[in-house]
Structures are given as C-alpha cells and as structure tokens.
Amino acid sequence: MYPRLIALLLIAGSLAAAATGAGAPSEPAIVSAGAHGLSILVPGQPASIAAEASSPGPGETGVADAFVFPADGSLVRTGALSSSVSSRATGAVSGQAVSDVLGVTLFNGELTAESVAGRAKASAAGADAAGSNVTNLVVFGTQVPATPNLRVQLGDWGYLIVLEQVVEAPVADGTRDARGAVNALHVVLTADHAGLPAGTEILVAHAEAAASTPAEAPAATTLTTEAPTPPGRPPGAPAKARKPLPKPPEPGVLPHKPGSVFRLPPTDVSAPLSPAGYVFPVYGPSSFTDTFRAARAGVGWHHGEDIFAPLGAPLLAVADGTVFSVGWNDRGGYRLWLRDRQGNQFYYAHLSAFSPLAIDGNEVKAGDVIAFVGNTGDAQTTPYHLHFEIHPVGLLPLGYDGVVNAFPYLSAWRRLEDVTFAAGRGWAPPVPSNATAPKPAAILLGSTDISSASGLDPGSLDRALTAPVSQGDSTVLGAG
User: Fold this and answer.
1) CB 3.0-4.6 Å disulfide test: which of 21, 33, 280, 411 passes with 446?
2) Strand segments (E) across 333-462
3) Residue 39's CB: how many other CB atoms inside 10 A?
C-alpha cells in the first residue's frame, strides 16, 4: 500500500509540474513592482544597471547622480536617474513603479532625449502605463514623436522602440493577473556598432507592476482594459483566450516558412556534455545572475533563472530525454519541458520559436537545438532571455514549487567545453580588429563542481562540495 501511495504522489506531482493551465482555487493577492533608470546588457557580460528598485524587496528606491558607459561616456551618458516602487497586497491592492532619467545621450549623440519617464500601475481593477513619456527625442538629428510602441530603424545596425509597453489584465481560473510594464526607450543592436556586439540591449526608464488578485464572478464578465490585442489573439476575443498550440510542420513543408513558429537550427552547433554530465542550455554568448525566489506577482516568487542572450540564440537540450508540453501559455509564452532519463524535469520559457525536434514525446540528445531565445508571454518589454527551471524527480510531489535554485547548477555547467564553435564560425558575429567589444567566447561567470553529486536533490550540491572530485563518476544523473 505504501509503495502504491508514493507512486500516486509522484504521478500527481509530475502532472502538476507539467500543467500550465489547470484550474486552481483562488489565491490571496500577490503584488510586485520593479523599476530601474537604465540597464545595459552586453552578451557574455554581467548587466550594468543604474538606479534599481523593487518591491517587495530590499530596495524600494534607487537614485544616481549620473550614469556613463564606458568611463568616457561615449556610448551612454545621462544626468540624474531615480526610481521608486510600492506595493500593497491587502486592502486596496495595488503596485506602482516610477522611473525618471534626465539628459540621455546614446552613441555619441546619435540618439538624445531631454528627459524620459516610465510609469506602471497594477491593481485588482486592471493596469496601465499612464504618465510614461519621452521629451524632445532626437534620432540622427531628426525630431521623433514619442508615441507608444513606435519602432525606429537605426541604420543597418539596430532599432529603437519608443514607449514600449504592455498593459493587460486577463482573468483565468478565478484569478485576475494585471500587469503594466514600460520601457521609455529600448535600443536593440542587430549588428556590431560603436564597439558593442550584436545582441546588446539598452533600456532607459523601465517600470513594471503586477497584481494577482481573486476575481469576483461579476467583475470577470465586465472587465475592460485598454491593452493592445496580444499577438495571436483575434480582435474582440475575451482576455482569457489562449493562443492556439503550434503544430509540427507538415511533411515536405519547410519549418522556416513565413509565419511558422518552427525554425531550422544552425548546422555548426557543437555542445558536448560537460564533466558534470549536462549541457549549458544556451548556445553562444549569454549572461545570468541569481534571481531565484525574487518576488513575482502571478507566481509569488521567481521559480527559475533568466539567461540573457541575443534574440534567436539556439537553446539546447541539457540532457538526453523526452520533450513534452510544447506550446503556448500566457505567462511563459512559447515554452516546453524536457524530462531526462532519471525523471528530472527542465522548463524552458519565453521562446521565440521551436526547432523541428520540439514535438511532444520526441526523444532528443544532450546538445540538440530544441528552441530559440525570445521574450514571449509575460516577458514582453524585458530583454531577450530564457527562463530556465530545474524540477528534481524527488520533489515532483510538491508540484510546481518542487523546484531548486538553478543558479549553482548553471554555473557548474557553464564551462568552456559546454559551448564550442566551429573554426571561424559561431553565433556571435565577428568583431572588427579596431572594436573595443569583447571577443566572442564562452565567459566563465562562476563554477561549482557537481560531478560527484548523486542526483538533482536539495543535498546534492552539499555532498559535491565536501567530496573529493576524484570520487565522482563524471555524471550528476545517478539514481541516488
């Protein structure tokens, strides 16, 4: 009887971890807010962030007299920056984020603005980005009107999005998830420029607020919002409508045809297993920090790690296993799960596209390209990244919260042999000899040897750090 009970718990936990749209009782209100004056994300380097604030969290205000990058201010230069946030999860539930930056100059004056402001609010009634503004924006000497979600081409090296914003308040499973987010200015480099490599992103005056609250039945039928219709949702459809699941390409039809969410992978990807027994999930330059358990409305706290990389960077199967739950949900956007041979599960979210290998029930090998980096779902207005989670088989009975901090594992997997490039080729574009940007390469952000770990259970890292490396069996995938 006891073994049968354990088996039933494991099955229930596995189903809970894999499900994304199953019904659940209404939860208490969860509110969060975040803002920063300016951030620069260069592939392969830690993020540079100024005037950052978050709530709930340790810092509810952030200020800086000025910001320059690099030291001479040739690429980015601003005057005073400030941000503030507040959140209230009881009574009149609400979250609010404010960010202001004065005197913005980018790329030695190719883009300038007198002032920029990001404003975001979320409550039980909905969300908005009212009050966000860019004053006196000039691009290549021409005045540009600051209209929401305006896209401006920047020569042949990138583009600018003005007042990039998302405002939504869908209702599903008895909960209203209101979210307002805005980047007053968002620059994306699609090619090398001014010493920065392709894939670099600059965000000025970012603000985001979210509130997950129980939705009363009458309100669910009368809720209206000024949010733009998300991609894939027919005009006039209810806010809780789901984007249809993508289908595998038909035989004989190229997966990279216009409109398809499937893409052919590059042919020169080489990513052998590391000494720890896994492959790092992102191919090419990327960066990540430890944000596990950071406050997040909708899910309560951050269940994974965000690995920032250029749009379209290949995503790899971290181990031999089976792909499942390939498709779309409103929070993760395009997403999929991978189950390895020991039953551990790995979640990939905010994808821009899948590879033809991403089919429910398909068997893949470690290092296979299964998807590509994006910012779909509720990651809109954020830099392109992979949201990655690790769910050990032993914790699956805990459901979606049976997750461990992926940061030490990712740091251990991030080794030179995890990401290799064919001679003269690679995902990152070549850097001119006179450029000051870092040369394309794998960047070691940290390392933890888990080669002697017996499985992805909470104590495996402790055992690995106390046991000599020579005792390991060169794999972390033991049945332990």
Assistant:
1) 411
2) 333-340, 345-354, 363-364, 369-373, 385-391, 420-421
3) 18
